[in-house]
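Trying the structure run again after the queue cleared.
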Amino acid sequence: MLTRIITGIVALLILAPFIIFSDTLAFPIGMALAAVISVWEALHCVGLHKNVWLLLPYGIVSIAAPISMRLWGVDETLMAGIAVIFVLMLYTYAVCVFARGKLDLSSVFTAFMTVLYSIAGFAALVYLHDFHEGGRFLYLLAFIGAWVTDIFAYFSGYLFGKHKLIPEISPKKTIEGSIGGMLFCVLAFVGFTYCYNMRFWGLLPEGSATLPYWLMAIVGLVVSVVSQIGDLSMSALKRHYGIKDFGKIFPGHGGMLDRFDSVVAVSILLACALGMML
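Done. C-alpha coordinates:
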Protein backbone atom coordinates (compact mmCIF):
# COMPACT_ATOMS: atom_id res chain seq x y z
CA MET A 1 0.00 0.00 0.00
CA LEU A 2 2.76 2.45 1.01
CA THR A 3 4.66 1.75 -2.22
CA ARG A 4 1.52 2.43 -4.28
CA ILE A 5 0.88 5.72 -2.47
CA ILE A 6 4.47 6.93 -2.83
CA THR A 7 4.56 5.93 -6.50
CA GLY A 8 1.23 7.69 -7.08
CA ILE A 9 2.56 10.90 -5.55
CA VAL A 10 5.77 10.71 -7.59
CA ALA A 11 3.76 10.03 -10.77
CA LEU A 12 1.59 13.08 -10.10
CA LEU A 13 4.71 15.21 -9.58
CA ILE A 14 6.08 13.97 -12.91
CA LEU A 15 2.75 14.61 -14.64
CA ALA A 16 2.33 18.09 -13.10
CA PRO A 17 4.81 19.93 -15.40
CA PHE A 18 3.10 18.51 -18.49
CA ILE A 19 -0.25 19.79 -17.16
CA ILE A 20 1.13 23.17 -16.11
CA PHE A 21 2.74 23.66 -19.53
CA SER A 22 -0.07 21.97 -21.46
CA ASP A 23 -0.27 24.92 -23.88
CA THR A 24 3.25 24.15 -25.08
CA LEU A 25 4.68 21.17 -26.99
CA ALA A 26 5.59 19.60 -23.64
CA PHE A 27 2.10 18.13 -23.29
CA PRO A 28 1.80 16.35 -26.67
CA ILE A 29 5.41 15.17 -26.33
CA GLY A 30 4.57 13.73 -22.92
CA MET A 31 1.51 11.99 -24.33
CA ALA A 32 3.61 10.66 -27.23
CA LEU A 33 6.12 9.24 -24.75
CA ALA A 34 3.31 7.59 -22.77
CA ALA A 35 1.83 6.20 -26.00
CA VAL A 36 5.07 4.67 -27.28
CA ILE A 37 5.73 3.02 -23.90
CA SER A 38 2.18 1.64 -23.98
CA VAL A 39 2.78 0.25 -27.47
CA TRP A 40 5.88 -1.57 -26.29
CA GLU A 41 3.98 -2.94 -23.27
CA ALA A 42 1.11 -4.16 -25.48
CA LEU A 43 3.54 -5.99 -27.77
CA HIS A 44 5.51 -7.34 -24.82
CA CYS A 45 2.31 -8.70 -23.27
CA VAL A 46 1.72 -11.00 -26.27
CA GLY A 47 5.41 -11.75 -26.84
CA LEU A 48 5.89 -9.62 -29.96
CA HIS A 49 8.08 -6.81 -28.54
CA LYS A 50 11.13 -8.13 -30.43
CA ASN A 51 9.34 -8.09 -33.78
CA VAL A 52 10.79 -4.95 -35.35
CA TRP A 53 8.35 -5.14 -38.27
CA LEU A 54 5.53 -4.42 -35.84
CA LEU A 55 7.30 -2.42 -33.15
CA LEU A 56 8.81 0.19 -35.48
CA PRO A 57 5.69 1.31 -37.42
CA TYR A 58 3.45 1.11 -34.36
CA GLY A 59 5.98 3.14 -32.38
CA ILE A 60 6.26 5.81 -35.09
CA VAL A 61 2.47 6.24 -35.25
CA SER A 62 2.21 6.38 -31.45
CA ILE A 63 4.70 9.26 -31.35
CA ALA A 64 3.25 11.06 -34.35
CA ALA A 65 -0.43 11.00 -33.33
CA PRO A 66 -0.39 13.23 -30.20
CA ILE A 67 2.21 15.61 -31.61
CA SER A 68 0.39 15.94 -34.95
CA MET A 69 -2.81 16.75 -33.06
CA ARG A 70 -1.08 19.88 -31.74
CA LEU A 71 1.10 20.87 -34.71
CA TRP A 72 -1.14 19.90 -37.61
CA GLY A 73 -4.52 20.62 -36.08
CA VAL A 74 -7.40 18.54 -34.77
CA ASP A 75 -9.45 18.19 -37.96
CA GLU A 76 -6.51 17.39 -40.22
CA THR A 77 -5.10 14.82 -37.80
CA LEU A 78 -8.46 13.07 -37.40
CA MET A 79 -8.86 12.75 -41.16
CA ALA A 80 -5.31 11.48 -41.57
CA GLY A 81 -5.81 9.14 -38.62
CA ILE A 82 -8.59 7.26 -40.39
CA ALA A 83 -6.30 6.62 -43.35
CA VAL A 84 -3.42 5.58 -41.07
CA ILE A 85 -5.62 3.04 -39.28
CA PHE A 86 -6.51 1.32 -42.56
CA VAL A 87 -2.88 1.40 -43.74
CA LEU A 88 -1.70 -0.11 -40.44
CA MET A 89 -4.38 -2.76 -40.68
CA LEU A 90 -3.31 -3.79 -44.18
CA TYR A 91 0.34 -3.60 -43.16
CA THR A 92 -0.31 -5.89 -40.18
CA TYR A 93 -2.03 -8.41 -42.43
CA ALA A 94 0.97 -8.24 -44.77
CA VAL A 95 3.40 -8.90 -41.91
CA CYS A 96 1.37 -11.97 -40.97
CA VAL A 97 1.32 -13.21 -44.56
CA PHE A 98 5.07 -12.85 -45.10
CA ALA A 99 5.80 -14.43 -41.72
CA ARG A 100 4.66 -17.69 -43.38
CA GLY A 101 2.72 -18.99 -40.41
CA LYS A 102 5.39 -18.16 -37.82
CA LEU A 103 3.23 -15.55 -36.06
CA ASP A 104 0.26 -16.32 -33.84
CA LEU A 105 -2.55 -14.36 -35.48
CA SER A 106 -4.63 -14.01 -32.30
CA SER A 107 -1.64 -12.44 -30.51
CA VAL A 108 -0.87 -10.13 -33.44
CA PHE A 109 -4.37 -8.74 -33.67
CA THR A 110 -4.81 -8.55 -29.90
CA ALA A 111 -1.68 -6.39 -29.90
CA PHE A 112 -2.94 -4.40 -32.90
CA MET A 113 -6.23 -3.52 -31.20
CA THR A 114 -4.50 -2.68 -27.91
CA VAL A 115 -2.00 -0.48 -29.75
CA LEU A 116 -4.74 1.43 -31.58
CA TYR A 117 -6.67 1.79 -28.33
CA SER A 118 -3.63 3.19 -26.52
CA ILE A 119 -2.63 5.59 -29.30
CA ALA A 120 -6.21 6.86 -29.64
CA GLY A 121 -6.46 7.42 -25.90
CA PHE A 122 -3.33 9.52 -25.52
CA ALA A 123 -4.04 11.45 -28.74
CA ALA A 124 -7.58 12.09 -27.44
CA LEU A 125 -6.11 13.89 -24.43
CA VAL A 126 -4.44 16.39 -26.77
CA TYR A 127 -7.66 16.64 -28.76
CA LEU A 128 -9.63 17.45 -25.59
CA HIS A 129 -7.15 20.17 -24.73
CA ASP A 130 -7.18 21.78 -28.17
CA PHE A 131 -10.67 21.33 -29.62
CA HIS A 132 -12.40 24.11 -27.64
CA GLU A 133 -11.55 27.35 -25.86
CA GLY A 134 -12.27 25.64 -22.54
CA GLY A 135 -10.24 22.59 -23.48
CA ARG A 136 -7.32 23.63 -21.30
CA PHE A 137 -9.53 22.61 -18.37
CA LEU A 138 -11.89 20.07 -19.93
CA TYR A 139 -9.12 17.58 -20.72
CA LEU A 140 -8.51 17.26 -16.97
CA LEU A 141 -11.85 15.45 -16.73
CA ALA A 142 -10.19 12.37 -18.24
CA PHE A 143 -7.78 12.19 -15.29
CA ILE A 144 -10.40 13.22 -12.74
CA GLY A 145 -12.97 10.69 -13.94
CA ALA A 146 -10.53 7.78 -14.12
CA TRP A 147 -8.63 8.41 -10.90
CA VAL A 148 -11.58 9.50 -8.73
CA THR A 149 -13.37 6.31 -9.79
CA ASP A 150 -10.29 4.20 -9.07
CA ILE A 151 -9.55 5.75 -5.68
CA PHE A 152 -13.10 5.73 -4.32
CA ALA A 153 -13.90 2.33 -5.78
CA TYR A 154 -10.92 1.01 -3.81
CA PHE A 155 -11.87 2.65 -0.51
CA SER A 156 -15.60 1.92 -0.92
CA GLY A 157 -14.77 -1.71 -1.61
CA TYR A 158 -12.35 -1.82 1.32
CA LEU A 159 -14.93 -0.39 3.74
CA PHE A 160 -18.18 -1.85 2.43
CA GLY A 161 -17.31 -4.51 -0.14
CA LYS A 162 -19.08 -7.85 0.31
CA HIS A 163 -20.10 -8.94 -3.18
CA LYS A 164 -17.49 -9.67 -5.83
CA LEU A 165 -17.86 -7.82 -9.14
CA ILE A 166 -16.12 -10.12 -11.65
CA PRO A 167 -13.82 -12.38 -9.60
CA GLU A 168 -12.72 -14.36 -12.67
CA ILE A 169 -10.97 -11.22 -13.95
CA SER A 170 -10.30 -9.09 -10.87
CA PRO A 171 -10.80 -10.98 -7.58
CA LYS A 172 -10.53 -7.91 -5.33
CA LYS A 173 -13.10 -5.66 -7.03
CA THR A 174 -16.56 -5.53 -5.47
CA ILE A 175 -19.99 -4.32 -6.52
CA GLU A 176 -20.04 -1.93 -3.55
CA GLY A 177 -16.69 -0.51 -4.62
CA SER A 178 -17.93 -0.06 -8.17
CA ILE A 179 -21.00 1.85 -6.98
CA GLY A 180 -18.87 4.02 -4.70
CA GLY A 181 -16.56 4.88 -7.59
CA MET A 182 -19.52 5.86 -9.76
CA LEU A 183 -21.10 8.01 -7.06
CA PHE A 184 -17.96 9.99 -6.32
CA CYS A 185 -17.17 10.37 -10.02
CA VAL A 186 -20.60 11.97 -10.57
CA LEU A 187 -19.99 14.30 -7.62
CA ALA A 188 -16.56 15.21 -8.97
CA PHE A 189 -17.98 16.02 -12.41
CA VAL A 190 -20.74 18.19 -10.91
CA GLY A 191 -18.16 19.99 -8.78
CA PHE A 192 -15.90 20.52 -11.78
CA THR A 193 -18.87 21.83 -13.81
CA TYR A 194 -19.68 24.36 -11.09
CA CYS A 195 -16.10 25.65 -11.07
CA TYR A 196 -16.01 25.72 -14.87
CA ASN A 197 -19.31 27.59 -15.24
CA MET A 198 -18.40 30.10 -12.53
CA ARG A 199 -15.11 30.83 -14.33
CA PHE A 200 -13.19 30.29 -11.12
CA TRP A 201 -9.87 30.28 -12.97
CA GLY A 202 -10.60 33.57 -14.73
CA LEU A 203 -9.05 32.38 -17.97
CA LEU A 204 -12.16 31.61 -20.02
CA PRO A 205 -13.58 34.45 -22.11
CA GLU A 206 -16.91 35.87 -20.97
CA GLY A 207 -19.86 34.51 -22.88
CA SER A 208 -18.25 31.14 -23.64
CA ALA A 209 -20.57 28.15 -23.42
CA THR A 210 -21.50 26.75 -20.04
CA LEU A 211 -21.99 23.07 -19.27
CA PRO A 212 -25.40 21.75 -18.10
CA TYR A 213 -25.16 20.15 -14.68
CA TRP A 214 -27.63 17.36 -15.35
CA LEU A 215 -25.87 16.35 -18.54
CA MET A 216 -22.43 16.44 -16.93
CA ALA A 217 -23.75 14.28 -14.08
CA ILE A 218 -24.82 11.71 -16.66
CA VAL A 219 -21.46 12.03 -18.42
CA GLY A 220 -19.75 11.49 -15.04
CA LEU A 221 -21.75 8.31 -14.46
CA VAL A 222 -20.98 6.96 -17.93
CA VAL A 223 -17.33 7.97 -17.57
CA SER A 224 -17.07 6.01 -14.33
CA VAL A 225 -18.59 2.92 -15.94
CA VAL A 226 -16.25 3.22 -18.94
CA SER A 227 -13.30 3.80 -16.61
CA GLN A 228 -14.00 0.55 -14.82
CA ILE A 229 -14.52 -1.30 -18.10
CA GLY A 230 -11.16 0.04 -19.31
CA ASP A 231 -9.51 -1.23 -16.15
CA LEU A 232 -11.21 -4.62 -16.30
CA SER A 233 -10.44 -5.00 -20.02
CA MET A 234 -6.73 -4.66 -19.43
CA SER A 235 -7.01 -7.00 -16.42
CA ALA A 236 -8.70 -9.58 -18.65
CA LEU A 237 -5.90 -9.22 -21.19
CA LYS A 238 -3.21 -9.70 -18.55
CA ARG A 239 -4.99 -12.69 -17.06
CA HIS A 240 -5.33 -14.30 -20.51
CA TYR A 241 -1.60 -13.97 -21.17
CA GLY A 242 -0.60 -14.91 -17.63
CA ILE A 243 1.15 -11.70 -16.58
CA LYS A 244 0.68 -9.64 -13.42
CA ASP A 245 1.52 -6.21 -14.88
CA PHE A 246 2.26 -4.74 -18.29
CA GLY A 247 5.51 -3.24 -17.01
CA LYS A 248 7.46 -2.04 -13.99
CA ILE A 249 7.79 1.67 -14.68
CA PHE A 250 5.53 2.53 -11.71
CA PRO A 251 6.47 0.39 -8.65
CA GLY A 252 3.35 -0.94 -6.99
CA HIS A 253 1.21 0.04 -9.98
CA GLY A 254 2.90 -1.70 -12.90
CA GLY A 255 3.43 -0.22 -16.34
CA MET A 256 2.02 2.67 -18.33
CA LEU A 257 -1.03 0.65 -19.41
CA ASP A 258 -1.62 -0.46 -15.82
CA ARG A 259 -1.68 3.12 -14.58
CA PHE A 260 -3.43 4.77 -17.54
CA ASP A 261 -5.79 1.99 -18.69
CA SER A 262 -8.83 3.87 -17.36
CA VAL A 263 -7.57 7.28 -18.52
CA VAL A 264 -7.20 5.97 -22.06
CA ALA A 265 -10.76 4.64 -22.10
CA VAL A 266 -12.22 7.81 -20.55
CA SER A 267 -10.33 10.20 -22.83
CA ILE A 268 -11.77 8.51 -25.93
CA LEU A 269 -15.30 8.70 -24.50
CA LEU A 270 -14.94 12.36 -23.48
CA ALA A 271 -13.50 13.30 -26.86
CA CYS A 272 -16.69 11.94 -28.46
CA ALA A 273 -19.12 13.27 -25.82
CA LEU A 274 -17.71 16.79 -25.37
CA GLY A 275 -17.03 17.08 -29.09
CA MET A 276 -20.77 16.73 -29.68
CA MET A 277 -21.82 18.89 -26.71
CA LEU A 278 -19.65 21.95 -27.46
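The longest helix spans residues 213-241. Worth checking whether this holds up in the mutant runs.
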